[in-house]
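Ticket #4471: complex job returned nothing on first submit. Input attached below:
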Amino acid sequence: MNPPQLALSALTKSFRQRVVLDHVSLAVEAGQRFSIQGPSGTGKTTLLRIIAGLEAADSGSVWLAGKVATEGAKIKLQPWQRGVQMVFQDLGLWPTRNVLQNVMDARQAAGLPHVKEVSTQVLVALGLGDFLKRKPGKLSGGEARRLAFARALAMEPKLLLLDEPFASLDPDARHAGFELLEQVLDQTSAAVILVTHDPEEATRLGGSQLRLVDGVLACI
Amino acid sequence: MIAVFHGRSPRPWWSLAVGLTLLAAWLPLLPILEPLLRFDRLAHMLDARTAALLWRSTWISGLAALLAIVLGWPYALLCTRFQFPGAGLFRLLMPLPILLPPLMVAQAWFGLTGMTGPLATVFTFGVCYAPLPALLAARSLHKQAASSFESALLIAPRLAFWSLLRISFLPAMIGAGFAFLFAAADFAVPDYFATVGDLFHVYAAEIFGHSRNFDFTAGATASLPLVLLGVVILLGNAILLKRQLGYEKNSGRYATAISAGRLTLPILLFMLTIVTVLLLAPLGRVIFETGNQGPLSERTWLEVSQQAFREGIDRGRGDLMRTLGFSGLAGLLCLFLAPLWAHMLLHCKNWLRLPLVVLVSLPLLVPSVALGFGSILMFNRPWLDQFYSSSLLPALLIAGRFLPIAVFLLLDAMSRVPDSREENAALAGCSYLQRLFRYRLGTQHASLWLAAGLVVAFGVRELDFAILLPAANASAAVRYYNALHFSRDNFVAAYGLILILLLFLPVMLHGWWQSLRSSDQ
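Support reply: We reran it on our side without changes. The output follows.
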């Protein structure tokens, strides 16, 4: 039997006196989808950052495909060694590089083959074919979001972390954004964890719905 | 009239700021810009000798700017975004070398290595102005969106490192551009190396040379090529800056520093080497010089050093107090003027911003010597006799010359404050000054005091126009310059160290203030 794509075991994290993750455990199989809801400031983003290796935990462990990635405060696998991609709330695009370079740089640095072909293909599939030479600062909000998804997708991740990718959008844009996400998810076999405030988004994603309150992760 | 200034409109205050800047900064520039209207003079300035001197100044300054970027950029990169022992201390030390008077650095490196000539000049300027690319690069690295860096880190460390290089490249270039300008406009350092070694000339020394035959008009007009060069570089920098600002979209979260890991020791050694070259070696040499003596002397190093400091305080105290007086007055003036200008730039129409930036920056782009010539030509008139010989004139000139530094520092600080704070105050009926000082600058007091402190510090180290202007002749920098040229080495070193202490004070206090604030939060 294959080990789960992601396993969290008794993960704990505090900021000063405030416990934001209290013995959180979870197992995510390949291709499985999870959404995590909860009020602001409850540690949802922190959980994703610990999974991505961008932050250490206080105690507990993170396992990725059977390998220990984080053990307590020690990061055993660096972020680039985890096969994880994350779409950040503010997208995290590289402002000095154009649309095509944003995706190509990523594929090239990761040593993936057919850099230009695949990058162009993914961008065209997500409707950015006409903007390949444009800098991210010149894109509309929706186009920039497409680019962030395209870059994550082009990395062929095993695990895709989405940190409120549609926050601060109006209802129409949010609807369009979710259609884009469904389009993205159709093209990947990665396990997905979506952090959101919106129960409707969680329902549309499908899979298991979780809620993080007072540091405790529970099924809805 | 008073009611106008009590009102809610910024216009009366902005007009006052423009009026004061006209007096302090723009009037002395008129004689420098006059040849632009007279083609016969313009043609006369472009002879073969002038061209050769300009070329020498250009390559010396170009190499100095290159050295500044080579030293400053990696320094900023490592101490801003990497975790290693002492990174915080290195960050604190970063701006200090720019406060060292270049002449003192030249003297120290001549004492250490015996180097002279144009390459020694390149080295001195490169070392002195390395903080410019460093500080601007550090600022951009600080402003990089955390998610932009982290999304690269999820892919490959090489990519994350490239993202740091890319985001800080333009600011480092802008800093190098300013380093080029300041190096091209400085006559004292090449003059020093030409005195202690083989004779050579640069263009700024040519400008200064006109003071020897009291031809102030020729001196002022001769600086026009450097001014034009300055404007070209400023415009180039403005374009780069506009592009850079489009890249900075920090949402408030700062990327965490990368652990240096196995590279800790090499990074630490590299940083120590740079700090030694920029700061410790020149300071160490100057400290050594305070007690240095001939082989027949029977006194100890400490006795000679103590004697030098006593002399420094006894003989230089009057000049030092005068310098602090007019520099302090300049700082006070900027405390009031700089926020008004920064606010004006923040709120003016887009098409007006660049011309205003050029106008505000112009006094800093003009060689300081030429500013001295210009002031003599404008203000040395019988009916202005009292003003011309008072401390008010150097105070005004220092305020005008260094106002751009204060303005741009505050513009950066103000742009971090959400407009809504000021708009809420406007809705509540607050006066313009309340809105500006209480609500826009209320959380940026450290930047305000730093801006004024830097004006004072640069005023204290100002030499070039102080040599020319009778009211500023009895200043600390001029006493230092004269003593250096009369080879009073112990006194020069001790006096220089007293000056350095004064120059470092505002920056160190700001660093301390900031660290207190961050520990509070």
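Chain B has a mean pLDDT of 87. Closing as resolved unless it happens again.
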